[in-house]
Amino acid sequence: VEGRSLNFIEEFIEEDIRNGKHAGRVHTRFPPEPNGYLHIGHAKSICLNFGLAKKYGGKCNLRFDDTNPAKEDVEYVDSIKEDVNWLGFQWDAEYYASDYFEQLYEWAVVLIKKGKAYVDDINQEQMREYRGTVNVAGKESPFRSRSVEENLDLFTRMRNGEFKDGEKVLRFKGDMTSPNMLLRDPLMYRIIHTDHHRTGDKWCIYPMYDYAHGQCDSLEKITHSICTLEFEVHRPLYEWFIKELEIFPSRQIEFARLNITNTVMSKRKLLELVKTGLVNGWDDPRMPTIGGLRRRGYTPESIRLFADKVGIARRDNVIDLSLLEFCLREDLNKRAERRMAVLNPLKVVITNYPEGLVEEMDAINNPEDETAGKRKVSFSRELYIERDDFMEVPPKKFFRLAPGQEVRLRYAYFIKCESVVKDANGEVTEVHCTYDPASRGGNSPDGRKVQGTIHWVSAQHAVKAEVRLFDRMFLGENPEDVPEGQDWKINLNPDSLKVVTGYLEPSLAEAKNLEKFQFERIGYFCVDKDSKPGKPVFNRTTTLKDSWAK
Ligand code: ATP
Ligand code: MG
Ligand code: MG
């Protein structure tokens, strides 16, 4: 955004440019692990990395951090690419950490030869014991003093598949007394006899994040490697390997990860919701995944606006979900065409309107955008209005329909309630009205005032649709904050989905998947992929106003 001050990452970059570092080149990357679908937190990182590259005339790579075959899959790779594109970004190059397995292996050999790495045989439990705690210095493993020759031999045999999972690891000789626990001889390689989605059974040893990430950045000559704050304590390792291997010095910069109220974002937890069937897949419109937001009716523009408004922080914080919805309304207000739809119908019969007559009323598609033009809406003797727009015994200042009271039908006529029909339980089933033929278009020649305007659909023309009304998925601002021993899923909102039958303007029957509309006076809605010809399904993207603001 023009005009705002630089964030701290931009300040770092501009300082590097001023100092002529890397000849002023800016090269970032977005490095997802293909072990789940992207969420709004990733969107923040995508907007940041691609945005910086764009701003400084640089490049941004898409790199899959695929170093753990047990959890990763091409299904996720494909969805990640789709989501990045959908958000409006094109990567300059597509890479996979697995592209570098051979190089990483050779570098591990270099470190073994330098006496900096060793094969360790102690098991996980012993490893924990030897590592010590923050307050207790660790002890060196008895295998740390293995000769270079023995380490080279064992590492080769690890690669050749001579050992079982967990039997041996390759470790870096760090400092077993360091206050930074990560530096106490970090693992470089572990044995996993699992096929990898790209390299198949070529490898049975896989590099750890800390051993792989910096070198991958370095190989791609990434200048600024942006990650979230929890990696700050990993930075010494990032720099260590680069220095030991004397390779291109990429620089790691950390920023605060995005957290949003009433939302869980960890892929592990989202996967749990999918696996347990508590949501209908990764793209359930209640999910904070990009796919879920898209299906819900979010636009890429609204998400980019949000990422921009959130800004870049150095400290962890929690952003109110209403900011995301605010950005959505900002965007949809400008571009979503207006339609009339009744979600809780009450029949109105206009007793003095000729039977069989159908008039075509002019309706404005978008008051915010003249180029959107107009459309015709059929009007007839029997209509549906919103049940809430009628009250038999109205309070003061109820400007909608009530016995003896007049109201304006949007784009049509004034009508006045003359009587009601009730069922055996006393519930109003029909409202009988008269209309003023002179008020067509919404004004009466005698200039009399009618305060309220309500929407309607013609009963004989209306199209029935399944309408899914979503609410926030979790109750409580911080759903992960649960009493000791309780499951975080207790905070799920049991009413996050309500399904109703709506009566829509007939033009909506033809709407295509993901098409977005404002249902006048109700909210923003979008066509769901479950729609079938003649059986439309709409998702409520959001209400018109922040309905749960305090
Ligand atoms: P999760 O913890 O949700 O599984 P992750 O960090 O393990 O996320 P990755 O696939 O490794 O997921 O993330 C790819 C990139 O997106 C990383 O650079 C990571 O820092 C960034 N990222 C992930 N979550 C967020 C977030 N909530 N806010 C900002 N950036 C994020
Ligand atoms: Mg990660
Ligand atoms: Mg993770």
UniProtKB/TrEMBL annotation:
Its main location: cytoplasm. One of its GO terms (biological process) is glutamyl-tRNA aminoacylation. PROSITE patterns: AA_TRNA_LIGASE_I (PS00178). Residues 336-436 form the Glutamyl/glutaminyl-tRNA synthetase class Ib anti-codon binding domain. Its EC number is 6.1.1.18. A motif ('KMSKS' region) lies at residues 264-268. It is found in: Cytoplasm. It comes from the Bacteria. A motif ('HIGH' region) lies at residues 32-42. Belongs to the class-I aminoacyl-tRNA synthetase family. This is Glutamine--tRNA ligase. The lineage of its organism: Bacteria, Pseudomonadati, Bacteroidota, Bacteroidia, Bacteroidales. The gene is glnS.
